[in-house]
Amino acid sequence: MPVAAQTSANTEETENISSVSAEETPSEAIVVTGTRIVRDGYESPTPVTIATSEDLTRAAPSGLPDGLNRLPQFVGSSGPNASSNTFATPDHGNVLNLRGLGPIRTLNLINGVRLSPTTYVGTVNADLIPQALVERVEVVTAGASASYGSDAVAGVVNFVLDTDFNGFRGFAQAGISTRGDNETLRGGAAGGFDLGDRLHVLLSYEHIESDGYTQGQRPALDLRGLAVGSVIGGGQSGTAANPLIFQTNAGFSFSSFNGHAANGPFAGTLFLPGGQYRPLDPGAPTGSAGYFVGGDYYYGPSSQSASAALRTDTIFGRVDYDVADTVAAYVQFMGSESVIRYGSLPNLLTFTPVIFSGNAFLPADLQAQLTAGNVESFGLRKAFLEFGPIPARERIRNYQVFAGLEGEIGNLNWNVDYTHGNSVFNFSQPNQYQYTRFAAAIDAVRDPATGNIVCRPTLDPDPDVRARYAGCVPFNPFGFGAASPEARDYVMGVSTYRAETSTDDITVGLSGDLIDLPAGPISFAVGVEYREQSLDLTSNSNPAIAEDITGLRGLPPTTPRYYLTNTGVASGSNSVREVYGELAVPILADQPFARQLDLNGAIRYTDYSTSGGVTTWKLGGTWAPIDDIRFRVVRSRDIRAPTLFDLFAGAQVTQAAALDPHTNVTFGASQRASGNPDLEPEISDSWSVGVVLQPSFLPGFAMSIDAYEIDLRGAISTLSAIQVLLDCESSGGTAPSCDTISRPLPFSDTSPANVPTEIRVTPINISTIETRGIDIDASYRTGFADGQLAVRLYATYVDRFRRQLSGSQPVIEYAGYSTLGARGDTTVPRWKGALSVSYDSDDFSIFVQENMIGEIKLGPTLTYAEPNMPAWFTTDLTVTARPGFFNGDAELFFTVNNLFDDTPPIFFGNLVPGLGLGTLNNLYDTTGRQFTAGFRVNF
What we know:
The chain is mainly β. It has a domain at 2-217 and 307-344 and 393-429 and 498-547 and 556-642 and 679-718 and 762-938: Maltoporin, Chain A (Beta Barrel). The chain contains 11 helices and 54 strands. It is found in: Cell outer membrane.
């Protein structure tokens, strides 16, 4: 297939490496991601790390994304471990995150073509890639928007498929943790064959399954922990005067398991099943108001998910056809379904239900106190945990169709590529309290006609109210498990929403050589691109439509349908028109102190229908004074355009627990999030300077060292409820964020009665991020004892990661710090690395990799008594045997991840004890030792 072969590099829109592999030599030059101009060799000014599929799955047999996340450039990627307690942003599955700048700023490609989003927030689940056909993964670790368009701010991840594969390959494997949980299954098959001289067909199928595990199955981390002040009565916790300490066996005074009276004549009374009661035992006080050790107060139960369960099926097909000697066509289909399940938050009501005088379930002597004092009602604080956690189920169905023509006109290469992508995201969350039904059911009274306990709305004089609540079952809220199963079924419901995204993209490109210079030809690439995107989100709980509370007591007029998740409808679309050009100019070649000197430049103009035009560009160069050394530098302007969900998201109401810095009270409030159609693209300026070493006196050795800097301004941020509160407080009540906080009293009132009732959040171009550091990639390969010995080191040092949430906030240095679970979500270790050693022979292979996450300090916005979290090391081991089956094309392998079962460093947030494992889930793997065994065939 001559045309397809000679134009594949252009189709992949690839170029050369910067982070190098000793497995490749200059005589075996490969073509890698970084530009649209095809140039072989180690010539690219843009740093690129290349990892083969084989090496990635040796380190992480669970899949390529897990292998990539062991590379130090990836920080804070989403995966099953990070999917246990998140509803607002569905970055579930495996969503890659370069530099810790957020998954939305990492562009994902397959064979150099942009992948359509698989979630409605614009991210891509990398599990949906046909991994059985991936030859290598190329990671561009610098901005590349001039070459690829929006989102390539932190870099690009390009999954390169072996589209010329002929034969059959298959694999099957199973895994389990040393604790007998987290059972995994993975299997797949791929085949490629020719039909005649011009047609090539490629097919694959893959299945991935994992059971996950709960917090209780990781007792070393399930510690009912909390970060609390160390000085009782020491004022604001997390300050130098009252630094935080980690406290286990903690409780949260907002609620209790049995329920207690929050006010009224018998405030502090704990209700027990069977009509009993006693004084509440608060436990021992801590240095944080509202938190105690021991006692009756609430803490997160062990039934919460620590790692989500998932199942993914993918199918892939591709047909290449040589239309003529100089024209080739291809059609490619990729389809997938992913189901993710996690039992997340408990049924902790973050509001205080109102119990009215005359409640039929209230003990008679307590009712007598209400009557004597002429008290109309009191508040009940109870965590209704007898009904278990609130589970969630996500099903993502995605398909993408690629089609194109490519060919030659003289010395020029041309291509026309079309992509259509569609993704449907279905979310369901049962076991949620419906506010109106709950209010009706707990307002239980005696029917004066029959003496039976009934829901008060069934006695309402309005026939419509009586009809609406005709099936109401009285709910006894006093004591753990006091309500009947029928009452539970009546008040609970299922929150659902469905989001469909669609993308159509067409690109026309032309590339080749312009003129010959003494050092070589000037190469160019030009093209145009047009893209349309649409989003449609529907929901059964649109918070824009308030529930009818006629006939009910104790509810505000803006009551949503469900307790935890209420999702607004959204609908919108936009279009993008782009034109780009790129030049590669050789300046010198084969001269003294200039074996090669090249310049490379690119420019792209992008016109968004929603925000107008923006220009991105890149200018770089490489200089090889001798064959053994190559220097490179690149400067770029990059963008991240707002997603459709950023622009058009409808209101979504969730419950947020937060420490209000204004009143110093931890409270539960409604958080209302929505989109912003006035958003503009983020702007990033990036530098990268590096050197590639391939010493001729040490064959098989290669090393690259690259320094990088990324300055992002106008970053689109949705301040969390906590961040909104802090921003308003730091301004003294004058910041625009104060207008998004609803309080019952004026801002001047700092009493506990003035805690917020609602916080409204929306994305805005408000933040800045500046990061810089150094990437190191070194490898060595040599013959040894009838085989090959290979050593590879990846390491990243982050010198700076500065973030300013808004103009009224200070610039904070996060490099080497973590604030996850406290008052932010940034975790950036200064050092992260992986060192692997492997030996391969015809009969067997051994692979060992040591993974390191450097020391982290807790802070910097909070002060801890003991702020240092130690470096964490884990070891992965894979042994492969080649017993000679299938003519020697079969392998049996056995892998142990986290060989020594090392437990991650302990870390607790400062909001709700036991809500999540006691570590940093988005940084450390909480699985522990995991065994995987399987086989592969390839013939």
